[in-house]
Amino acid sequence: METKQVDDKEVVRVITTVQNNSSELLPLDLTIEILKRLPPKKILALRCVSKQWCSIINSRPFTNTFMSMSMSRPRLLFAFNIAHDGDKTSVVFYSSPHPPQVSKDSPSSSLMVAKKEMVLTKGIYLYSFNRITNVHGLVSYGSTLHEFFICNPTTGQVVKFPKDQTFTPEEELHSHMYLAYDTTDGLYKVLLAPWDDSTRQHQVLTLGERKWRCVEGSCNTTSCQPNLIKQRGICINGVLYYGASTEEWEVSMIVSFDVRSEQLSYIQAPITIHLDSYNKDSLQNYLGKLAVFSFTKEGLHIWVLENVKKHEWSFKTYVSHLFGKITTKPVTMRFVGTTNDGEIVIAPIMLSKDEAFVVIFYNLEKETKTSVGFVGFEGFEGLASYDRLTIRRILISPQHVENLISF
Protein backbone atom coordinates (compact mmCIF):
# COMPACT_ATOMS: atom_id res chain seq x y z
CA MET A 1 0.00 0.00 0.00
CA GLU A 2 1.49 3.34 -1.02
CA THR A 3 1.75 6.00 1.66
CA LYS A 4 0.78 9.50 0.62
CA GLN A 5 3.02 12.28 1.88
CA VAL A 6 1.27 14.62 4.28
CA ASP A 7 1.03 18.23 3.11
CA ASP A 8 1.00 21.04 5.67
CA LYS A 9 -1.84 22.85 3.83
CA GLU A 10 -3.89 19.66 3.99
CA VAL A 11 -3.30 19.43 7.76
CA VAL A 12 -4.50 23.01 8.20
CA ARG A 13 -7.60 22.31 6.07
CA VAL A 14 -8.52 19.18 8.04
CA ILE A 15 -8.12 20.81 11.46
CA THR A 16 -9.99 23.94 10.36
CA THR A 17 -12.88 21.81 9.01
CA VAL A 18 -13.11 19.88 12.28
CA GLN A 19 -13.19 23.10 14.27
CA ASN A 20 -15.81 24.74 12.02
CA ASN A 21 -18.06 21.70 12.32
CA SER A 22 -17.92 21.57 16.12
CA SER A 23 -19.04 23.93 18.84
CA GLU A 24 -15.63 23.86 20.50
CA LEU A 25 -12.06 24.20 19.39
CA LEU A 26 -10.08 21.06 18.66
CA PRO A 27 -8.74 19.74 22.00
CA LEU A 28 -5.22 20.86 22.75
CA ASP A 29 -3.90 17.34 23.30
CA LEU A 30 -5.29 16.23 19.93
CA THR A 31 -3.72 19.23 18.18
CA ILE A 32 -0.35 18.34 19.74
CA GLU A 33 -0.72 14.70 18.68
CA ILE A 34 -1.35 15.79 15.08
CA LEU A 35 1.52 18.27 15.00
CA LYS A 36 4.21 16.05 16.50
CA ARG A 37 3.65 13.36 13.85
CA LEU A 38 4.51 15.73 10.99
CA PRO A 39 7.98 16.16 9.45
CA PRO A 40 9.97 18.84 11.33
CA LYS A 41 10.18 21.29 8.42
CA LYS A 42 6.37 21.23 8.10
CA ILE A 43 5.95 21.70 11.85
CA LEU A 44 8.10 24.82 11.74
CA ALA A 45 6.11 26.18 8.77
CA LEU A 46 2.85 25.70 10.70
CA ARG A 47 3.91 28.23 13.33
CA CYS A 48 2.42 30.84 11.00
CA VAL A 49 -1.08 29.32 11.19
CA SER A 50 -2.05 30.94 14.50
CA LYS A 51 -0.64 32.31 17.75
CA GLN A 52 -1.84 29.17 19.52
CA TRP A 53 0.02 26.86 17.14
CA CYS A 54 3.15 29.03 17.33
CA SER A 55 3.00 28.90 21.13
CA ILE A 56 2.53 25.12 21.12
CA ILE A 57 5.37 24.43 18.69
CA ASN A 58 7.82 26.75 20.48
CA SER A 59 6.94 25.46 23.95
CA ARG A 60 9.46 23.44 25.97
CA PRO A 61 7.06 20.48 26.53
CA PHE A 62 6.40 20.14 22.79
CA THR A 63 10.07 20.36 21.77
CA ASN A 64 10.95 17.82 24.48
CA THR A 65 8.23 15.46 23.27
CA PHE A 66 9.43 15.78 19.70
CA MET A 67 13.01 15.16 20.86
CA SER A 68 11.96 11.96 22.63
CA MET A 69 10.27 10.71 19.46
CA SER A 70 13.33 11.64 17.38
CA MET A 71 15.67 9.73 19.70
CA SER A 72 13.73 6.54 18.95
CA ARG A 73 14.41 7.02 15.23
CA PRO A 74 17.98 8.42 14.88
CA ARG A 75 19.21 9.51 11.47
CA LEU A 76 22.48 9.81 9.60
CA LEU A 77 23.67 13.39 9.20
CA PHE A 78 26.02 14.06 6.27
CA ALA A 79 28.20 17.19 6.23
CA PHE A 80 29.95 18.01 2.95
CA ASN A 81 32.83 20.48 2.97
CA ILE A 82 32.84 22.40 -0.33
CA ALA A 83 35.77 24.49 -1.59
CA HIS A 84 34.74 28.13 -1.75
CA ASP A 85 36.49 31.51 -1.64
CA GLY A 86 40.14 30.57 -1.24
CA ASP A 87 40.97 28.84 2.05
CA LYS A 88 37.40 29.18 3.30
CA THR A 89 34.71 26.63 2.58
CA SER A 90 30.97 26.07 2.81
CA VAL A 91 29.14 23.17 4.46
CA VAL A 92 26.07 21.40 3.06
CA PHE A 93 24.05 19.17 5.42
CA TYR A 94 21.91 16.19 4.38
CA SER A 95 20.17 13.56 6.49
CA SER A 96 18.64 10.14 6.02
CA PRO A 97 16.94 7.45 8.13
CA HIS A 98 18.97 4.42 9.15
CA PRO A 99 18.56 1.31 7.03
CA PRO A 100 16.48 -1.50 8.55
CA GLN A 101 18.23 -4.18 10.62
CA VAL A 102 19.23 -7.28 8.65
CA SER A 103 20.06 -10.89 9.44
CA LYS A 104 22.60 -13.11 7.76
CA ASP A 105 19.89 -14.42 5.43
CA SER A 106 18.54 -10.96 4.51
CA PRO A 107 19.61 -8.86 1.50
CA SER A 108 22.83 -7.02 2.35
CA SER A 109 22.38 -3.95 0.17
CA SER A 110 19.81 -1.22 -0.37
CA LEU A 111 19.38 2.29 -1.79
CA MET A 112 18.17 5.34 0.15
CA VAL A 113 17.53 9.00 -0.68
CA ALA A 114 19.04 11.70 1.52
CA LYS A 115 17.25 14.99 2.07
CA LYS A 116 18.93 18.37 2.12
CA GLU A 117 18.79 20.14 5.49
CA MET A 118 20.74 23.41 5.25
CA VAL A 119 23.75 25.19 3.77
CA LEU A 120 26.31 27.17 5.74
CA THR A 121 28.07 29.79 3.63
CA LYS A 122 29.74 31.83 6.37
CA GLY A 123 33.22 30.82 5.26
CA ILE A 124 34.23 27.81 7.34
CA TYR A 125 37.94 27.05 7.56
CA LEU A 126 38.88 23.47 6.72
CA TYR A 127 40.42 22.93 10.16
CA SER A 128 37.17 24.06 11.79
CA PHE A 129 35.22 21.59 9.66
CA ASN A 130 37.34 18.73 10.98
CA ARG A 131 36.16 19.66 14.49
CA ILE A 132 32.43 19.29 13.77
CA THR A 133 30.53 17.44 16.50
CA ASN A 134 26.86 16.49 16.82
CA VAL A 135 25.16 16.59 20.23
CA HIS A 136 21.42 15.80 20.52
CA GLY A 137 20.61 17.35 17.15
CA LEU A 138 22.79 20.46 17.42
CA VAL A 139 26.05 20.72 15.50
CA SER A 140 29.09 22.67 16.65
CA TYR A 141 32.00 23.50 14.41
CA GLY A 142 35.29 25.19 15.11
CA SER A 143 37.64 24.42 17.96
CA THR A 144 38.52 27.84 19.38
CA LEU A 145 36.43 30.67 20.80
CA HIS A 146 37.62 32.79 17.89
CA GLU A 147 35.71 30.66 15.34
CA PHE A 148 33.11 28.62 17.28
CA PHE A 149 29.56 28.33 15.92
CA ILE A 150 26.53 26.18 16.71
CA CYS A 151 23.80 25.35 14.21
CA ASN A 152 20.58 23.35 14.13
CA PRO A 153 20.31 21.55 10.76
CA THR A 154 16.59 20.94 11.36
CA THR A 155 15.64 24.60 11.89
CA GLY A 156 18.50 26.21 9.96
CA GLN A 157 19.43 28.44 12.91
CA VAL A 158 23.08 29.44 13.46
CA VAL A 159 24.62 31.20 16.45
CA LYS A 160 28.12 32.39 17.33
CA PHE A 161 29.01 32.31 21.00
CA PRO A 162 30.00 35.45 22.92
CA LYS A 163 33.63 36.05 23.76
CA ASP A 164 34.98 35.71 27.26
CA GLN A 165 36.35 39.17 28.02
CA THR A 166 38.92 37.76 30.46
CA PHE A 167 40.74 35.98 27.64
CA THR A 168 43.35 37.71 25.50
CA PRO A 169 43.21 37.28 21.69
CA GLU A 170 46.13 34.84 21.91
CA GLU A 171 44.38 32.78 24.58
CA GLU A 172 41.21 32.69 22.49
CA LEU A 173 43.18 31.08 19.67
CA HIS A 174 44.57 28.48 22.08
CA SER A 175 41.30 27.39 23.65
CA HIS A 176 39.18 24.36 22.82
CA MET A 177 35.39 24.45 22.70
CA TYR A 178 33.04 21.54 23.41
CA LEU A 179 29.26 21.32 23.05
CA ALA A 180 27.51 19.16 25.68
CA TYR A 181 23.98 18.26 26.77
CA ASP A 182 22.48 17.93 30.25
CA THR A 183 20.03 15.03 29.92
CA THR A 184 18.38 15.76 33.29
CA ASP A 185 17.49 19.44 32.83
CA GLY A 186 17.48 19.38 29.02
CA LEU A 187 20.09 22.16 28.73
CA TYR A 188 22.88 22.60 26.21
CA LYS A 189 26.17 23.93 27.51
CA VAL A 190 29.53 24.85 26.00
CA LEU A 191 32.77 24.07 27.80
CA LEU A 192 35.81 26.23 27.09
CA ALA A 193 39.00 24.31 27.86
CA PRO A 194 42.24 26.33 27.83
CA TRP A 195 45.18 24.93 25.92
CA ASP A 196 47.18 24.55 29.13
CA ASP A 197 44.97 23.53 32.06
CA SER A 198 47.65 24.52 34.57
CA THR A 199 47.46 28.22 33.78
CA ARG A 200 43.79 29.01 33.13
CA GLN A 201 40.41 27.92 34.39
CA HIS A 202 37.81 26.11 32.34
CA GLN A 203 34.72 28.18 31.53
CA VAL A 204 31.15 27.02 30.89
CA LEU A 205 28.21 28.77 29.23
CA THR A 206 24.59 27.64 29.04
CA LEU A 207 22.99 27.95 25.61
CA GLY A 208 20.68 30.97 25.68
CA GLU A 209 22.76 32.87 28.25
CA ARG A 210 25.63 35.29 27.68
CA LYS A 211 27.71 35.00 30.84
CA TRP A 212 30.55 32.51 31.20
CA ARG A 213 31.10 30.77 34.56
CA CYS A 214 34.29 29.31 36.01
CA VAL A 215 34.30 25.54 36.44
CA GLU A 216 35.13 24.50 39.98
CA GLY A 217 38.16 22.28 40.31
CA SER A 218 39.89 23.68 37.22
CA CYS A 219 41.95 26.30 39.05
CA ASN A 220 45.60 26.91 38.26
CA THR A 221 47.12 24.89 41.12
CA THR A 222 49.73 22.14 41.13
CA SER A 223 46.97 19.55 41.55
CA CYS A 224 45.66 20.35 38.08
CA GLN A 225 47.52 18.25 35.54
CA PRO A 226 48.37 20.22 32.37
CA ASN A 227 46.74 18.92 29.20
CA LEU A 228 48.16 20.47 26.08
CA ILE A 229 46.51 18.42 23.33
CA LYS A 230 42.73 18.20 23.11
CA GLN A 231 40.84 15.63 21.06
CA ARG A 232 37.34 16.09 19.65
CA GLY A 233 34.88 15.45 22.47
CA ILE A 234 31.91 13.11 22.79
CA CYS A 235 28.88 13.54 25.05
CA ILE A 236 27.26 10.39 26.52
CA ASN A 237 24.34 10.41 28.96
CA GLY A 238 25.05 13.88 30.29
CA VAL A 239 28.84 13.51 30.54
CA LEU A 240 31.35 15.09 28.13
CA TYR A 241 34.60 13.22 27.47
CA TYR A 242 37.66 14.37 25.57
CA GLY A 243 41.22 13.15 25.27
CA ALA A 244 44.13 15.21 26.57
CA SER A 245 47.87 14.84 27.01
CA THR A 246 51.13 16.67 27.39
CA GLU A 247 52.63 14.74 24.48
CA GLU A 248 52.21 15.89 20.89
CA TRP A 249 49.38 14.07 19.07
CA GLU A 250 49.11 11.40 21.74
CA VAL A 251 46.40 11.07 24.38
CA SER A 252 47.14 9.37 27.70
CA MET A 253 44.20 10.57 29.76
CA ILE A 254 40.51 11.32 29.30
CA VAL A 255 38.89 14.41 30.81
CA SER A 256 35.34 13.87 32.11
CA PHE A 257 32.94 16.80 32.55
CA ASP A 258 29.59 16.23 34.27
CA VAL A 259 27.35 18.64 32.37
CA ARG A 260 24.73 19.07 35.12
CA SER A 261 27.04 19.47 38.14
CA GLU A 262 29.75 21.16 36.04
CA GLN A 263 32.49 19.11 37.69
CA LEU A 264 35.72 17.98 36.05
CA SER A 265 37.50 14.68 36.66
CA TYR A 266 40.18 12.61 34.96
CA ILE A 267 40.19 9.02 33.70
CA GLN A 268 43.33 7.11 32.77
CA ALA A 269 43.09 6.02 29.13
CA PRO A 270 43.49 2.25 28.59
CA ILE A 271 46.03 2.86 25.82
CA THR A 272 47.95 5.74 24.32
CA ILE A 273 45.57 7.15 21.71
CA HIS A 274 47.22 8.36 18.51
CA LEU A 275 45.31 11.15 16.81
CA ASP A 276 44.86 11.19 13.05
CA SER A 277 42.34 12.42 10.49
CA TYR A 278 40.76 9.01 9.80
CA ASN A 279 39.55 8.03 13.30
CA LYS A 280 41.81 4.97 13.55
CA ASP A 281 41.99 5.75 17.27
CA SER A 282 39.03 7.58 18.75
CA LEU A 283 36.57 7.97 21.61
CA GLN A 284 33.16 6.49 20.77
CA ASN A 285 29.70 5.98 22.21
CA TYR A 286 29.39 2.19 22.16
CA LEU A 287 26.00 0.94 23.38
CA GLY A 288 25.66 3.91 25.73
CA LYS A 289 29.15 3.62 27.25
CA LEU A 290 32.43 5.41 26.62
CA ALA A 291 34.74 3.32 24.46
CA VAL A 292 38.14 3.64 22.84
CA PHE A 293 38.29 2.25 19.30
CA SER A 294 41.65 1.37 17.76
CA PHE A 295 41.88 0.06 14.19
CA THR A 296 45.03 -1.93 13.36
CA LYS A 297 46.02 -4.42 10.66
CA GLU A 298 45.21 -7.18 13.14
CA GLY A 299 41.63 -5.97 13.67
CA LEU A 300 39.49 -3.60 15.72
CA HIS A 301 40.42 -3.30 19.40
CA ILE A 302 37.67 -1.93 21.66
CA TRP A 303 38.06 -0.86 25.28
CA VAL A 304 34.77 -0.09 27.06
CA LEU A 305 34.66 1.90 30.31
CA GLU A 306 32.74 -0.34 32.72
CA ASN A 307 33.48 1.41 36.02
CA VAL A 308 34.11 5.16 35.96
CA LYS A 309 35.27 5.50 39.59
CA LYS A 310 37.73 2.60 39.42
CA HIS A 311 38.83 3.32 35.83
CA GLU A 312 38.02 -0.28 34.84
CA TRP A 313 37.89 -1.12 31.13
CA SER A 314 36.77 -4.29 29.36
CA PHE A 315 38.60 -5.31 26.18
CA LYS A 316 37.69 -7.21 23.02
CA THR A 317 39.13 -7.63 19.53
CA TYR A 318 37.11 -8.07 16.33
CA VAL A 319 38.49 -9.25 12.99
CA SER A 320 36.99 -8.45 9.58
CA HIS A 321 38.32 -7.88 6.06
CA LEU A 322 36.40 -4.56 6.12
CA PHE A 323 38.94 -3.04 8.49
CA GLY A 324 41.61 -3.26 5.79
CA LYS A 325 39.80 -0.51 3.89
CA ILE A 326 40.55 1.80 6.84
CA THR A 327 44.11 0.76 7.72
CA THR A 328 45.64 -0.10 4.32
CA LYS A 329 46.99 2.71 2.15
CA PRO A 330 45.73 4.28 0.00
CA VAL A 331 42.89 4.84 2.45
CA THR A 332 39.54 4.87 0.63
CA MET A 333 37.12 4.35 3.53
CA ARG A 334 36.81 6.00 6.92
CA PHE A 335 35.30 4.87 10.22
CA VAL A 336 32.72 7.53 11.13
CA GLY A 337 31.12 6.22 14.33
CA THR A 338 28.59 3.77 15.75
CA THR A 339 24.81 3.45 15.79
CA ASN A 340 22.64 3.06 18.89
CA ASP A 341 22.53 -0.69 18.17
CA GLY A 342 26.31 -1.00 18.24
CA GLU A 343 26.90 -1.20 14.48
CA ILE A 344 30.08 0.43 13.24
CA VAL A 345 29.69 2.75 10.26
CA ILE A 346 32.30 2.97 7.48
CA ALA A 347 32.02 5.47 4.63
CA PRO A 348 34.07 6.70 1.64
CA ILE A 349 36.35 9.66 2.19
CA MET A 350 35.24 11.32 -1.07
CA LEU A 351 32.05 11.77 -3.12
CA SER A 352 31.78 11.12 -6.85
CA LYS A 353 29.00 12.55 -9.02
CA ASP A 354 28.98 9.36 -11.11
CA GLU A 355 28.58 6.86 -8.27
CA ALA A 356 26.23 6.28 -5.35
CA PHE A 357 27.71 7.11 -1.96
CA VAL A 358 27.93 3.65 -0.34
CA VAL A 359 27.99 3.45 3.47
CA ILE A 360 28.68 0.15 5.25
CA PHE A 361 26.95 -0.82 8.51
CA TYR A 362 28.67 -3.72 10.27
CA ASN A 363 27.29 -5.49 13.36
CA LEU A 364 30.27 -6.72 15.36
CA GLU A 365 28.39 -9.35 17.36
CA LYS A 366 26.15 -10.75 14.59
CA GLU A 367 28.85 -10.32 11.91
CA THR A 368 26.27 -8.93 9.50
CA LYS A 369 27.05 -6.28 6.89
CA THR A 370 24.65 -3.90 5.18
CA SER A 371 25.82 -1.77 2.25
CA VAL A 372 23.58 1.24 1.64
CA GLY A 373 23.89 3.45 -1.40
CA PHE A 374 22.79 7.03 -0.74
CA VAL A 375 21.63 9.32 -3.53
CA GLY A 376 20.11 12.80 -3.64
CA PHE A 377 23.25 14.78 -2.86
CA GLU A 378 22.51 17.80 -5.00
CA GLY A 379 22.38 21.52 -4.50
CA PHE A 380 26.09 22.27 -4.69
CA GLU A 381 25.51 24.62 -7.61
CA GLY A 382 26.83 28.10 -6.99
CA LEU A 383 29.30 26.91 -4.36
CA ALA A 384 31.84 25.14 -6.54
CA SER A 385 32.10 22.79 -9.49
CA TYR A 386 30.90 19.31 -8.53
CA ASP A 387 33.91 16.98 -8.68
CA ARG A 388 36.31 15.08 -6.48
CA LEU A 389 38.65 18.04 -6.02
CA THR A 390 36.20 20.57 -4.62
CA ILE A 391 34.42 18.34 -2.07
CA ARG A 392 37.29 18.33 0.37
CA ARG A 393 35.88 16.46 3.38
CA ILE A 394 32.83 14.41 4.34
CA LEU A 395 31.78 13.94 7.95
CA ILE A 396 28.92 11.68 9.04
CA SER A 397 27.09 11.57 12.37
CA PRO A 398 25.35 8.17 12.76
CA GLN A 399 23.30 9.17 15.85
CA HIS A 400 21.73 12.45 14.70
CA VAL A 401 18.26 13.36 16.02
CA GLU A 402 15.92 15.98 14.60
CA ASN A 403 15.46 18.81 17.06
CA LEU A 404 13.04 21.78 17.05
CA ILE A 405 14.83 23.79 19.72
CA SER A 406 15.51 27.49 19.05
CA PHE A 407 18.29 29.43 20.73
Automatic annotation (TrEMBL):
<dbReference type="Pfam" id="PF00646">
    <property type="entry name" value="F-box"/>
</dbReference>
<dbReference type="InterPro" id="IPR001810">
    <property type="entry name" value="F-box_dom"/>
</dbReference>
<dbReference type="InterPro" id="IPR013187">
    <property type="entry name" value="F-box-assoc_dom_typ3"/>
</dbReference>
<protein>
    <recommendedName>
        <fullName>F-box domain-containing protein</fullName>
    </recommendedName>
</protein>
<dbReference type="InterPro" id="IPR036047">
    <property type="entry name" value="F-box-like_dom_sf"/>
</dbReference>
<dbReference type="InterPro" id="IPR017451">
    <property type="entry name" value="F-box-assoc_interact_dom"/>
</dbReference>
<dbReference type="Pfam" id="PF08268">
    <property type="entry name" value="FBA_3"/>
</dbReference>
<feature type="domain" description="F-box">
    <location>
        <begin position="20"/>
        <end position="69"/>
    </location>
</feature>
